[in-house]
Specification:
19 strands, Rossmann fold, alpha/beta, 5-stranded parallel β-sheet, 7-stranded mixed β-sheet, about 650 residues, about 40% helix, 26 helices, single chain
């Protein structure tokens, strides 16, 4: 890598009119930030080559030419750096410098995952960028590289080995990683996310090789803004953050929860087309109450019990303030796998001041609602005709329940308080009823209806007579044969959703649901299950995976410049997903579309979400595009290789 100091850079390129950023004075003339890839050698010759290339590039930018490939520039409007959606990246005071220059050549280029192409570098590129001898003589196409990687990954017997191979590829060749994931999404989604990511988080300390995001611990209190500035990318549009206290159904994994933000953001790019350089995974480390981890010599986090109360609140508040100061009003912050006692409070506290979204509360709710809306094509009627019973009353269960109640209220014009009465929840102490109200957590109180106490799930089914049974308990095998048979005795086509992740925590398997209901259940789960044959008929279980919703939702928020997330956007996302289920899917018993078309699905979701943002007056990127679906597709990142000169 070659860097030029400021005076050397200005002298060699002939750029004038700067004032020092440290003086606080505005720049009279600010060229776009320039990153030049793959030219030069070490020493003075390298500096001269770099300076000539930058000078040529600046000339081309002035003349509207683009002869030099892979020179990334950030346009400026009114003196402020803009991303492609027009977002103000920073104020004048926050700028460290108005220009940057880095030149990667040869060996360093091959170790830059953003620009490395491996054997796909052609003969001219190898000569121009000092790659001769650093690669074998064969030139391989992007497609052949994908074929080779899939062949290699399929050789591994264990899912965790496949996960590690994918993470290693992401750190070596970013575009190949995303092309591989996009083209093999149904096969690789369970590897890079649930269920395999759960095991990866459990063993994260042992398999940790390279940092893939920011770790912000209690040690960084008082200087979080400085820590954020350590991240190399400055134009961040999406942050996924966790404190690791409730990872999937696996409990407190502390700092090792980082696998979740990394996995989620991979899906933001692969499924929603959000540029990888604009995604930032973050783990907030306040300790862990997991004794096994505290005693594990390979644990990578703080070795102390979790901070709570004021200490926790102050750290989170500093973090949220720093994010807004560094990245602006329109950066999306997705809360992920926070424990119930923090998740609801954080969403309520920052929902009115930041663009925030809790995937466990809102994303799960949106995807499940979409499945229920689609299921009406199989059972007939409307949502208002159903009675719902949940096993699990945490953030997922209550979040789904609230969105169902909102949708029924919207369809029937009935008050929300009335539509909630169609929904019943069972927690670890039994059916939630009004006589328990004083002892309930605040997020459970809206679901405390008049009824005598019931302790067992199967007894609640017999009393409530639900048409839909939803599991969000995080406890495996709780939908027993007796439970499923009770649902089947009440309903011709019982809707049974076993949503807990990973697979080991699923309330029942697809095979159990179809067999115990005598092939009549409409089934979907949180983790994937293979097709099931019952009495000569093949049943294909659906997967109520949040990956259907959050990538498209995020893209819609970004492309509209939304400043807040509104419940109507979640309803719009649900309706858009339900519309993508075809008659062919219904014929197989599916209530979700296949993941093979996920980028098309995400574009439709993004368009509906953006349209709702414009309708609600929450969009800032004006004017509104005429065709939002086409605009969404045009905004999507595509992992094609660039040609270098």
């Amino acid at each position: 890598m070659i860097s030029l100091n400021r005076s050397s850079f200005l002298n060699k390129t002939g750029i004038s009119g700067f004032r020092s950023p440290s003086s606080g004075a505005a720049l009279r003339r600010r060229p776009a930030s320039v990153r030049v890839v793959a030219l030069g050698t070490n020493g003075r010759a390298g500096e001269r080559n770099a300076a000539v290339l930058v000078e040529n590039r600046l000339k081309e930018m002035r003349e509207g030419s683009s002869a030099i490939a892979d020179v990334e520039s950030k346009p400026t409007v009114g003196g402020e750096v803009q991303d492609e959606y027009g977002h103000d990246a920073s104020t004048e005071e926050e700028f460290v410098t108005p220009w940057c220059l880095s030149v990667a050549s040869g060996y360093s280029l091959l170790r830059d995952p953003h620009h490395n192409k491996g054997l796909a570098f052609n003969e001219k590129e190898r000569d121009a960028h000092f790659l001769r001898g650093l690669l074998p003589p064969t030139v391989a196409s992007h497609e052949l590289q994908v074929k080779k990687m899939m062949h290699n990954i399929r050789q591994y017997q264990l899912p965790l080995q496949k996960y590690m191979a994918m993470m290693d590829l992401q750190e070596r060749n970013e575009r190949l990683f995303y092309k591989l994931l996009i083209e093999n999404v149904e096969e690789l989604l369970p590897i890079v996310y649930t269920p395999t990511v759960g095991e990866a988080c459990q063993k994260y300390g042992s398999i940790f090789m390279r940092p893939q995001g920011l770790f912000i611990s209690l040690k960084e209190k008082g200087k979080i803004r400085e820590v954020l500035r350590n991240w190399p990318e400055k134009n961040i549009q999406v942050i996924v953050v966790t404190d690791g206290e409730r990872i999937l159904g696996l409990g407190d994994l502390g700092c090792q929860g980082m696998g979740i933000p990394v996995g989620k953001l991979s899906l933001y790019t692969a499924l929603g087309g959000v540029r990888p350089s604009s995604c930032l995974p973050i783990t907030i480390d306040v300790g862990t109450n997991n004794e096994t981890l505290l005693n594990d010599e390979f644990y990578i986090g703080l070795r102390q019990r979790r901070a709570t109360g004021q200490e926790y609140a102050e750290l989170l508040d500093e973090f949220m303030t720093a994010v807004k100061q560094n990245y602006g009003e329109k950066v999306l912050i997705q809360f992920e796998d926070f424990a119930n006692h923090n998740a609801f409070d954080l969403l309520a506290k920052y929902g009115t001041t930041h663009l925030v979204f809790n995937d466990d509360i809102q994303g799960t709710a949106s995807v499940v609602l979409a499945g229920l809306v689609a299921a009406q094509n199989l059972v007939g009627g409307t949502l208002a005709d159903h009675r719902f019973l949940f096993l699990g009353a945490g953030e997922a269960g209550t979040g789904i329940a609230e969105l169902i109640a909102l949708e029924i209220s919207k369809q029937t014009n009935a008050p929300l308080e009335e539509t909630r009465k169609k929904i019943w929840l069972v927690d670890s102490k039994g059916l939630i009823v009004s006589s328990r109200k004083e002892s309930l957590q605040h997020f459970k109180k809206p679901w405390a209806h008049e009824h005598e106490p019931i302790n067992e799930l199967v007894d609640a089914i017999k009393a409530i007579k639900p048409t839909v049974l939803i599991g969000t308990s995080g406890v495996g095998r709780t939908f027993t044969k007796e439970v499923v048979e009770a649902m089947a005795s009440i309903n011709e086509k019982p809707i049974i959703l076993a949503l807990s992740n990973p697979t080991s925590q699923s309330e029942c398997t697809a095979k159990e649901a179809y067999t115990w209901s005598q092939g009549r259940a409409i089934f979907a789960s949180g983790s994937p299950f293979p097709p099931v044959e019952y009495e000569g008929k093949l049943f294909v279980p659906g997967q109520a995976n949040n990956a259907y919703i959050f990538p498209g939702l995020g893209l819609g928020l970004i492309m509209s410049g939304a400043i807040r997330v509104h419940d109507d956007m979640l309803l719009a996302a649900s309706e858009a997903l339900a519309e993508q289920v075809s008659e062919e899917n219904f014929a197989k018993g599916l209530i979700f579309p296949p993941f093979t078309n996920i980028r098309k699905i995400s574009a439709h979701i993004a368009a509906k979400v953006a349209a709702k943002a414009y309708e609600l007056g929450l969009a800032t990127r004006l004017p509104q595009p005429k065709d939002l679906v086409t605009h969404a597709e045009s905004c999507m990142y595509s992992p094609v290789y660039r040609s270098y000169r």
